[in-house]
Design a protein that fits this description.
Elements lengths: L2 H18 L14 H23 L7 E13 L5 E4 L3 H5 L3 H4 L13 H13 L4 E9 L5 E10 L6 E12 L12 H19 L8 H7 L4 H12 L3 H19 L4 H7 L5 H12 L16
Helix pairs in contact: 1-2, 6-8
């Protein structure tokens, strides 16, 4: 698979992720040179447009999710493959109370599909003190949800312990439960269409400074208080917080999926000053932009 096709396929995965997180404004460029890819791109773009139109007409707001991209779950197991310690984010990733994880056999948090592969890894780990490998495992959460993720499995030097580090994405519904079902009153539909349009406007202009709520109210011909109150009702956050969150999400994806220098990514994401971008990014994700692993990229801000 050449680099051009690889990038196209990666973009398709990105669009599927964006749709899963409620962003229906993300669209793909068509590729007339590859009929199969072009057909798939056309289908995805059409589905996104139809979903956007349908949700607005029904009085829904697209589900908006926040996510902690690349949440790192690190687990340390002993020579008997029982869990002895883990990072603070691991219980969130698996949906377990921390007390319930300690001393569990590692196989107990794996889906049955991954057990045969894990048995092979156990044999290798027991035989090779320098064992280090990357594999895809499927974890099973306390709610019986399957979470496929790539993991590194390594023996610790001068120890019988094994460290398993996985990176995954956690989606968290950010909409209040009170609007999980549509209210078909005319007023509700009108509010939904208004806020959907504001939502779309923000996502399409993340690289630009956010207009004040007063300016936004004039753009969308609505009372400023109503705009702020309705947006918070549907998205459970302020307009500015939503804008900031989406800019940082965009930056996170660009860091992972491109070789663009960090300073340029900061600019693309609407930050004219790298220091401000760095501080906002670290506050949101609890690690710096340069801490993210970029495949085959030697990047400095």
């Amino acid at each position: 698979m050449n680099n051009h096709i690889q990038q196209k396929v990666k973009n398709i995965y990105r669009m599927l992720f964006e749709m899963a997180t409620g962003n229906l404004t993300f669209k793909l460029q068509r590729d007339p040179e590859n009929c199969q890819l072009d057909e798939l791109v056309t289908i995805l773009n059409t589905v996104a447009e139809k979903m956007q139109l349908l949700t607005a007409n029904l009085g829904y707001i697209n589900p908006h999710y926040t996510y902690q991209s690349l949440v790192q779950a690190t687990i340390i197991i002993d020579k008997n493959f029982s869990i002895k310690s883990f990072s603070t984010q691991t219980p969130t990733f698996l949906g377990y109370n921390p007390d319930k994880l300690i001393e569990l056999g590692f196989h107990e948090i794996l889906a049955k599909q991954s057990i045969p592969l894990w048995d092979i890894i156990k044999t290798e780990a027991a035989a090779d003190v320098k064992m280090h490998t990357t594999i895809q495992l499927i974890f099973i959460t306390s709610n019986q949800h399957l979470v496929p993720t790539f993991c590194t499995v390594s023996r610790l030097l001068y120890s019988n312990a094994i460290i398993i580090s996985s990176i995954t994405t956690i989606l968290q519904d950010n909409l209040p439960n009170s609007i999980s079902a549509p209210n078909k009153t005319d007023q509700h539909q009108s509010d939904a269409v208004l806020i959907q349009n504001v939502h779309t406007y923000i996502l399409k202009n993340l690289e630009n400074p956010l207009p004040s709520t007063n300016e936004l109210s004039k753009i969308f011909n609505v009372n400023e208080f109503k705009l702020k109150d309705t947006f918070r009702h549907f998205f459970h956050t302020s307009i500015y917080q939503f804008y900031t969150e989406e800019r940082l999400k965009k930056a996170h994806l660009l860091i992972l999926q491109t070789s663009i220098p960090l300073k340029e990514i900061a600019f693309i994401s609407g930050y004219n000053d790298y220091t401000n971008f760095y501080k906002a990014f670290k506050k949101r994700f609890h690690y710096s932009p340069s801490d993210l692993k970029r495949e085959n990229i030697d990047d400095n801000p």
